[in-house]
């Protein structure tokens, strides 16, 4: 790895992913009374993706999934209360073939050189992010304040997860395929009933 891609995140990925100070036991004890910050990938009733963040707000549970190659566009990965936000984001992306750029069709600024997508985050005061950052969060994992870049020669409006990079994760293999593309949550009412019954 060259010095320009070296960072605490890429150099110490294993240490960052390792729970510290009885983290797992702490989560199991306190999960019945949830508090603190949640990652987008948190599921009710599961002791992951909450209060497990690094210095840049990256979710350590997501980093573990990114390291294993997760790359999926599936609204069913998220809770019902965030479903509409996730689905509305992907509906503004022109999803094409896996090797093509996926242009953002939503709001832009600075003569179409910057994208603007609605997506609240526990570590950003603004409710909007760049579309490429949101696409990375929703397909690969929540990486907090780390900046997302496009691969060389990519369109500035592109949201194809296979074209997106985080320099600090240069040591992690880039996924070669998107395992799922699913923008349907199925019967929302049945899912809502199942969620209530589980709780």
Write the layout of secondary structure elements.
Elements: H1 8-11, H2 13-17, H3 23-30, H4 60-67, E1 73-74, H5 80-91, E2 108-109, E3 114-115, E4 117-118, E5 128-129, H6 131-139, E6 149-150, E7 164-165, E8 181-182, H7 188-198
Parallel strand pairs: 1-8
Antiparallel strand pairs: 2-3, 4-5, 6-7
Fold and architecture overview:
This protein is an alpha+beta fold and 199 residues long. The chain has one domain. Helix content is 29%, strand content 8%. It contains seven helices and eight strands. The protein has helices at 8-11, 13-17, 23-30, 60-67, 80-91, 131-139, 188-198, and strands at residues 73-74, 108-109, 114-115, 117-118, 128-129, 149-150, 164-165, 181-182. The strands form four sheets. A two-stranded parallel sheet has the order 1-8. The protein is globular and about 40 Å long.
Which descriptors apply to this entry?
199 residues; alpha+beta; two-stranded parallel sheet; two-stranded antiparallel ribbon; 8 strands; 29% helix; globular
Q: What structural class should be given to the helix and strand makeup?
A: alpha+beta
Based on CA inertia axes, which overall geometry fits? Answer: globular
Largest sheet: 2 strands, parallel
Tally of helical segments: 7
How many individual domains?
1
**Rg over CA atoms:** 17 Å
Give start-end ranges of low-pLDDT stretches. 1-6, 21-34
How are the strands of the largest sheet arranged? 1-8
The span between the termini is 46 Å
Total count of strands: 8
Percentage of residues in strands? 5-15%
The helicity comes to: 25-40%
- Mean pLDDT value: 85
């Amino acid at each position: 790895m060259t010095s320009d891609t070296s960072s605490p995140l890429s150099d110490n990925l294993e240490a960052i992913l390792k729970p510290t100070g009885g983290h797992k036991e702490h989560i199991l004890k306190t999960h019945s009374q949830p508090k603190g910050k949640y990652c987008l990938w948190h599921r009710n009733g599961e002791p992951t993706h909450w209060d497990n963040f690094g210095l840049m707000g990256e979710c350590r549970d997501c980093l573990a999934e990114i390291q294993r190659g997760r790359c999926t566009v599936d609204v069913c990965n998220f809770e019902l209360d965030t479903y509409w936000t996730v689905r509305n984001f992907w509906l503004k992306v022109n999803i094409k073939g896996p090797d093509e750029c996926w242009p953002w069709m939503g709001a832009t600024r600075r003569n179409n050189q910057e994208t603007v997508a609605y997506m609240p985050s526990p570590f950003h005061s603004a409710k909007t992010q760049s579309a490429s950052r949101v696409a990375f969060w929703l397909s690969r994992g929540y990486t907090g304040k780390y900046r997302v870049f496009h691969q060389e020669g990519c369109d500035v409006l592109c949201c194809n997860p296979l074209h997106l990079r985080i320099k600090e994760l240069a040591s992690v293999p880039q996924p070669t395929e998107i395992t799922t593309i699913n923008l349907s949550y199925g019967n929302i009412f049945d899912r809502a009933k199942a969620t209530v019954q589980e709780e």
